[in-house]
Amino acid sequence: MKSLRLILSNPRYLAPALVFASLNIWFGTWAIYIPTVKEMLAIGKADLGFALFFLSLGVFSVFPIASKLVARLGVGRATWVSILCSSLFAMFPLIAPNYGLLCIALFFLGASNGFTDIAMNTLVTEIEKKDGIRIMSAAHGFYSLGGILVGLTSFLIPIIPHPMYHMLGSVVLILWVSYNMRKHYIHITAATKNNQTFNIKMFKPLFLLGLVAFVSMGSEGAIVDWSGLYLKEITLAPTYLIGAGFLAFSATMTLGRFLGDGISESLGSYKLLMLGAILCILGFVLVLTTTTILAIIGFGFAGLGFSAMVPELFRIGGKVNSVPSSQGVALIAGCGYLGFLSGPVLLGYLAETFNLKFSFTLLLCCAVLVFLIAFTKRKTD
């Protein structure tokens, strides 16, 4: 909890952590209204899955230019610009009048959120290097904290007249907080290194870690996007519990990320990944019981298991000797985002062809794969 104390005691560290929370508030508020949007536009699971593909397309359209924008603007100023963009584009998917415009709105939401993700992770990386501290896992904890806030507000869905009002309230709050906190990071710039040439071979040590990032964030994205529908259609949960899976997942993920830095120091990176995979396996087994309460508890175990994986992967990626830290982090982020946004699309098609229970069985297999990869690489810790 040392990193959490650092963040809470110093606005220089709190300001970027709040950007992490904001990203999940934008995305999570969209996610809890996915069943509502599906019904409003009268689309099937496969159509919804294809629409979610445009989120992924938007993210990857910004990846090639994001690093150049961060370098040109400065990482602090780029973070502020990304907040403005994400706040604007977060509102459009919830007011799209037809399927085509929904796909376009999701593309721009993906692009703005991808830019925010790269800018804020680079910002925290630079602060860690300049100040000699470790707050990455705790900063990701604030991302999960944003999910908790969204999960709590999900209980208001039955009385909110339109999803747009919910998102608008979130955007106004984020902009007000960010405007007042931006002074603590807007001046920060990232150090640049000359004579760095791209060579795909130097990423070889990160390929398996990239696969873990793809699988773990793909599973995380699936829970965010499909847990509500799973509880509604498979476990037949009442309306007021539809957001409870997302809430449980976000709550345990927040706890795990606040504890992650200390656990990593005690166990080592790959043993931490193995422990996380075991918790995820247990969680998905409970989800597959199709009992509402057990499924919600299962989503909680999955959140605890996945909690420290991605921050730890960023940390490992930034320490590989043959790879510049910024490029190592970018590779992990790229693989992770590919999984986070394409995983739900694939699961949507599988759910349409089979059912959501089959999709979550696949996620169980993915958790086993993460354990096996971490087990084989544990001797390099």
Written description of the protein model:
The chain has 381 residues and is mostly helical. The protein has one domain: Growth Hormone, Chain: A (Up-down Bundle), CATH 1.20.1250. It has 15 helices and no strands. It is globular, with a radius of gyration of 19 Å. Residues 194-198 have low confidence and may be disordered.
The H-and-E topology, N to C, reads as HHHHHHHHHHHHHHH
CATH superfamily: MFS general substrate transporter like domains
Strands, count? 0
Termini separation (Å)? 23 Å
Under CATH, the topology is which? Answer: Growth Hormone, Chain: A
Tell me the Rg in angstroms. Answer: 19 Å
Total number of helices: 15
Q: How confident is the prediction overall: mean pLDDT?
A: 85
CATH architecture verdict? Up-down Bundle
SS strand fraction: under 5%
CATH class placement: Mainly Alpha
Shape: globular
**Approximately how much helix is present in the residues?**
over 70%
| Largest sheet geometry | none
Number of domains: 1
Uncertain stretches of 5 or more adjacent residues: 194-198
Structural class: mainly alpha
